[in-house]
Amino acid sequence: MQTTGQPRLQVRTTNTRATRWPRSATSFGLASRSLFRWSSCRATSSIGLATPFLPFLAQLCLHRFSERSFFSTAAWSLSAARGMMTLISLGITVAFLTSLAGTLGLFKIEVWWELATLTTIMILGHWLEMRAVSQARGALSALAALLPDTAERVISEEIQTVPLLDLRVGDVVLVRPGTRVPADGTVIDGAADVDESMITGESRSVSKGLGATVIAGTVASGGSLRVRVTAVGEQTALSGIMRLVGAAQASGSRTQAIADRAAAMLFYVAVVAGAITLTYWWFAGDREHALTRTATVLIIACPHALGLAIPLVIAISTSLGAQNGLLVKDRLALERARDLDVVVFDKTGTLTRGAPALSGVIVAPGIREDDLLAHAAAVESDSEHPLAKVIVAEARRRRLPSLAATQFEALPGRGAQAMISGESVAVGGPRLLSDRQVTAPTELAKATATWAAEGKTVLSVLSQHRVLGAFAVEDEIRPESKEAVEELHRLGMRVAMITGDSKAVAESVARRLGVDEVAAEVLPADKAAAIERFQAGGRRVAMVGDGVNDAPALVTANVGIAIGTGTDVAVESAGIVLVRSDPRDVVGAIELSRAAYRKMVQNLVWATAYNLIAIPVAAGLLLRWGVELPMSVGAVAMSLSTLIVAVNAQLLRTVKLGRDAIPETAPAQRAPTASA
Q1: What count of Cα atoms within 13 Å lies in the side-chain half-sphere of residue 199?
Q2: I need a labelling partner for 577 at 20 to 30 A (CA). Which of 89, 307, 557, 613 fits?
């Protein structure tokens, strides 16, 4: 048969077929053809039948095997306006009918071996694709695997091994060294180091003792615990994390919506390209190859790579975030995080620990620091005031001797006093000094004035109308806060702080941390309005908070980020939840957002470029230069394009997000001292 001036690729005679393959044919295709023809001939000779229908019967079996993967899904694809499997089904069907027509003598071409190779490659590619998707979504399976199948329930002095489903709130369970905690609860006996890395991303084990809370799925080591169960089943923290991860993986994004529309459009482009290919080559006189080239166009244009470009990245980034203590509740919030201009931190409980701590001690001449602290702790030992507890806790940390105090008296608005070894000792603020008309020594007065200017609370210790020394107490700044601010500056963002504290306190904290902007003396009801002011000029703002009064601001911000140890209201109002109380994880969330977006763009560019190049080649545009794309090679190209997208998405796992946060249980540093 002549091909109207085009290169003759196949010459068919009565008994043999001599083939001159284009340069794009692969050794895999040649091997597949030889194997298919050999198996057909052997089977024919073994049953004594010289029938041309045996290749048809063999392909029919393979066709039936692939029906569930491709043809059954094609109907759903059409109804969902996606058409990915529909293109594969159309391509296989065209090739199948072409070969059948050749077998019946209607055409002088058969492509049974090409069709067998095509179907096999497509099934293999589909399996590899589904495997990649399954691995990307493996975070839920990994979380579910953290829970043990059974628990050791303690009843009186008897220990019973029971299924996890039989546990109830109020039960007491035994957690042996090396085993997992079966449910959320509170330690009532024992001590152990607990590995919470699978939940919080924190690499260091956390010491747990009497009264400490433990999370289901964590691992005890170095001791055993008896835990009273406070939550089981769907009420545990682990189940909550699984729900968040599942919802995030199922959610879409703006980029995903664009990719879905492009994939749906590509379906119609492929059908039109196939129709043009068929029409052109048919009327050019090359009817047999018109059909095979049409099938190749339909196969190679399948938008699998485009359809997987975004979902794989979403699944992997969500699981990667969960492994590093970042729970994504709102996928769009994570997507917006890459374009932030300002990150606003609530001060109390976020940049600071939210609890008073001793930050400075100064003593008068002739007074020892430990003696001053021991006398102050003796006075404050009976007080319930939070500042009094700071003094007592510091004395216990230093293991100072306990002094006997009598005649304790609380002085409302001023402090407290008691008798120690026959002497009256009082501890209180500036009002105590003014009421008793006592003047501090010059050096001591300068130090306390500096503390007061920095917003610290100053407590003076008096005895017999003499100032023995003073303490500075403040809301302790988290050691990791300064590093978080520096890292955000490195990413090109401004850092702001919002607080209800006085301007002096706020500016002191901001100065030590390197914060760029401060909103001080902000009432809880006005925090949302303060966020709107930060958004002036089109700036994109993230709000990081932990309290009930932060919820409106979290909702108002472009991205709301809640500290996991915060209130339920704050967590519900945020789009991203930090499991650890570490502000450096905000940097991790932004880096994850940027890395995920880069992978999305890379995948979209590759998938789009592949189709722009592959479809014209498959249609025979380069045939005059001796380059043609057989169906088997087209199937390989389509599968490889999908695998490249999958592998590129998997590379997102190499992004390093986690940091070893400083444990919350670490002892406070010794307060800086001075001597007047």
Answers
A1: 25
A2: 307
Q: Could you list the beta-strand ranges (E) of 73-146.
A: none
524 part of a folded domain: yes
Does residue 33 share a domain with residue 111? yes
**What does 396-428 look like in DSSP terms, one character per residue?**
HHTTPPPPP-EEEEEETTTEEEEEETTEEEEEE
Cβ atoms of 457 and 356 within 8 Å: the answer is yes
Please tell me whether residue 258 adopts helix, strand or coil conformation.
helix
Domain count, the chain: 4
Which pLDDT tens digit goes with each residue over 569-600? 556 777 888 888 789 999 999 999 999 889 98
Q: Kindly tell me if the per-residue pLDDT of 660 is higher than 60.
A: no
82, 127, 128, 133: which is closest to 312 by C-alpha?
133
Q: How far is CA 207 from CA 71, 204, 213, 323, in A?
A: 57, 10, 11, 21
Amino acid at 187: V
Same domain, 337 and 381: no
Mark whether 133 and 24 lie in a shared domain. Answer: yes
Helices (H), 222-310: 237-250, 254-283, 287-300, 304-308
Q: What pTM does this model have?
A: 0.64
Q: Catalytic site residues?
A: 346
Which range of residues forms the domain containing residue 394? Answer: 354-477
Contact criterion met (CB below 8 Å) for 91 and 298: yes
Residue 368 token pair = 């020892």
The CA-based diameter of the chain, rounded to the nearest angstrom, is 125
Cα within 13 Å of Cα(305), Cβ side: 30
d(CA 674, CA 176): 48
Say whether both 411 and 559 belong to one domain: no
Q: Tell me: the pLDDT tens digits for 138-169?
A: 555 656 666 788 889 988 778 888 888 888 89
Q: How far apart are CA 249 and CA 252, in angstroms?
A: 8
Check whether 328 has a pLDDT greater than 90.
Answer: no
In the chain, % helix, strand, coil (3-state, to 5) comes to: 50, 20, 30
